[in-house]
Amino acid sequence: MKFSFSGEQEEFRTSLRRFLGERSPTKEVRRLMETDAGFEPAAWRKLNTELGLTAVRIPEAYGGQGFGFGELGIVLEEMGRALLCAPFFSTAVLATSAILNAGTEDQKQALLPGIAAGDTIATLAWVEDPAHWDAAATRMTATQTGSTWKLDGHKSYVLDGHTADLIVVLARAAGTSGEAGLSLFTVKGDAQGLERRNLKVMDPTRKLARLDFKGVEATLLGEAGAAAAPFARTLVEAAVCLSNEMAGVSERLREDALAYAQMRMQFGRPIASFQSMKHKHADMLVDVELAKSAAYYAAAALDEGDEDIAAVASIAKAAASEAALQTAVHAIQIHGGIGFTWDNDTHLWFKRAKSSEVLLGDAHYHREQMMQHWAD
Amino acid sequence: MSELTEDSVRAEVRAWLEANWNPELGLVEWRNKLADSGWGVPGWPKEWYGRDLPAGLVPVVDEEFARIGAIGVAKAGIRTLAAATILAHGTDLHKEKYLRRILTGEDTWCQLFSEPGSGSDVAGAVTRAEMKGNKWIVNGQKVWTTSAHHAHWGLLLARTDWDQTKHKGLSYFIIDMHQPGVNVQPLKQMNGHASFNQVFLTDAVVEPEFLVANVGDGWAVTTTTLMHERRGADGLRSWAMGSDRKGRAYDEERAEIATTMEPYKWYPQRAGRVDLILERAKETGHFEDPVVRQEIARLLVMSKAAEWTARRARAAAQQGKPQGPEGSLGKLVSSHVARAAARVHTQLSGADALLSGSDSPMNGVIAEILVSVPATSIAGGTDEIQRNIISERVLKMPKEPSIDTTKPFRDVPRNMVR
After folding, report:
1. What CATH number does the domain located at A229-373 have?
2. C-beta neighbour count of A207 within 10 angstroms
3. Distance in Å, alpha carbon of A373 to nearest chain B alpha carbon
4. Beta bridge pairs of residue A171
5. So what's the ipTM on this one?
6. Which of A135, A287, A367, B284 has the most CB within a 10 Å radius?
């Protein structure tokens, strides 16, 4: 397996890091996280057009750049590092993967160019109350009348659900259960009968919505009743992508805490000179580097069609979840009192680490997923 | 002289092997041919059994040896470190006397660095060498000496000047292990094995010409030896596989491997045996236990991420990139993995973890894991030293203050004896 970055990829990372560093300083993060949308459509469209970010993994046939998860992983890692406020994960990961995995050729032709160009903000809605991260718990019903489908029920924890132009929705035929009878649909953000409510969130850089559906007209995505496999694949890809984003979050937390420890003087010496501090930083480096290795390996495994990819993705997500949160906890501790204040930036990444730990299933969930792959 | 290329080297070594390799030769006879021809250590200087081959072309020679299964020079054990140290710092007399018999495997070596009072702090050695009547007379105690019981020669670090500062008062010697003043005793470990020795030196003699470099250069020479120890750590494993081919040379090599590897037979258990976890979980019926499953998975996630981190470091090295932080973490991570594995093996074994030997699971393998893992976080640099190294060298955090390096060593506090 190819498992290191090429010169082109390193250059891509370097320029992206510089660009996002300029466009997403914490002042900007703080401004955008206080808005309802969590981003500014015009500014996001401009940035996306300049860098072609949502196009990275969309095949050229659908208006994209045709790169793989290796490159998409770089984009996500750098976005995590910069804490960019943008509807990227919802659009370019969740919705794009669902459409690529489940959609017909005509649907990909119709839906993906808008995403690649940055004109469409899209998301994937599958979790309901009470929350389960897999498909089997889906209760929303899809009813077919002639050639039209209507959706009834609700979705929650929908990333950018209140701002998305296009929502991919998982629902089931009435009377089915488990993985049978599941279908994916697309719904317009302003569809009749769809009520969207912005949820109050712990991590203000990651906006979530609850969506209530009352007879909402929907378009079938792909084949009726056959969504289980493409949807599962979509979640695997999303877990790998989130793990890469978390690698960036974790490394940023670690580096900022180190810079602070080197600068902060107590008892007449930098706190970085205390062995308790040095050993903590060595342990943080271990956590972060192991999580990065797992995230990079998982992205490469996706690109190369590794048959163990579901287990590998869960390893990456479990490692990333623990590393990100542990690093965030250490980072606050290293900053001391100032680290607990709103004005200090550490809490911004702490909250992103926390929301990422839980999103798509926490470490316990993914450890169990991984074990199920090795049950036989 | 024509320029060396991969093709020219390959053709030359292939022709030489065709003319000379014969598995029915005695091992020493064959290795003497390697020493004479320079093909055994082609990267070494021409005047000392090598061919001055550029490092980039040495793997071509290795490949040709491997292709036909030809045996190489004796590589395992401390002898490789001795050879590297003698090549770098030894006199012509040292090279003349020792190098050939290192390559043929006739002589084995041991390393007399660690002492009961200086483990992580090797430069704190207090074994003394004093010049008396034109000979060095050595007194002291060394410990953790692998293979000292059959070694012919030892690499000795001893203090020659107590008025000098810590690092400047040390000198480096080659000492004959077969003499009356050298008493080697096995050191029994908590897992029952005795892979190491204690070496008691009582008026042991070193002739003046077996000082390596100058008086006071001992720390610099020791650094060379330790650097090669770290570099060579990976080589041992592949070499130890040996070969199952037929022929006198192969038989003799197998016997050599068996002797050299004997001290290391519990090392797989020391690392935690993650490879046994799933099998044990299924055979003990714990695979379905959700609590144990979490612990197993936690271990496997760490172990996989560690394996991928090592691969990431290797891939970067192969691309010629400067070493990133991922290359410095292996030692510390292996301690975490070993400890987690011992914890899970205990959970899986339940009451059987109370037993040992043939009464315990897998004929004692599991019990051996539980009492061997504590060595992982100590041997070859403790976890605490590793964290210092990582924080200082990789993260550029301030160095520990050294309060013992500027005053005469005789004034430096040592272990409190009550």
Report:
1. 1.20.140.10
2. 24
3. 11
4. A183
5. 0.92
6. A367
Query: Does A42 touch chain B if contact means CB atoms closer than 8 Å?
Result: no
Distance from CA of A56 to the nearest CA of B (A): 24
- Mean pLDDT calculated for residue range A219-235: 97
> Hey, which residues 317-336 in chain B have their CB within 8 Å of chain A?
318-319, 321, 325-326, 329, 332-333, 336
Tokens of B133: 């009547």
Any idea which architecture A123-225 has in CATH?
Beta Barrel (2.40)
Q: Considering CB atoms only, which of B315, B329, B388 is closest to A286?
A: B329
Inter-chain touch A293–B316, beta carbons under 8 Å: no
- Give the pLDDT score at A190: 97
pLDDT in tens, B27-83: 999 999 999 999 999 999 999 999 999 988 999 999 999 999 999 999 878 899 999
β-strand pairing of A122-125 with A166-173 = parallel
- pLDDT band per the 50, 70, 90 thresholds, residue B235: very low
User: Residue B185's beta-bridge partner residues?
Assistant: B198
Domain B108-232 CATH assignment equals 3.40.50.300 = no
User: A293–B397: do the CB atoms touch at under 8 Å?
Assistant: no
How close A154 comes to chain B (CA, Å)? 31
- Cβ-based contacts under 8 A for chains A and B: 110
Q: Which helix (H) or strand (E) segment is B341 a member of?
A: helix B330-349
For A7-88+99-119, CATH number out of 3.40.50.150, 1.10.472.10, 1.10.540.10, 3.20.20.60 equals 1.10.540.10
How far apart, in whole angstroms, are the C-alpha atoms of residue B301 and residue A11? 30
Q: How far apart are CA A350 and CA A339, in angstroms?
A: 10
Confidence band, pLDDT 50/70/90 cuts, at residue B234 = very low
Rounded to an integer, the average pLDDT of A284-301 is 98
Cis peptide upstream of residue A130 (ω within 30 degrees of 0) = yes
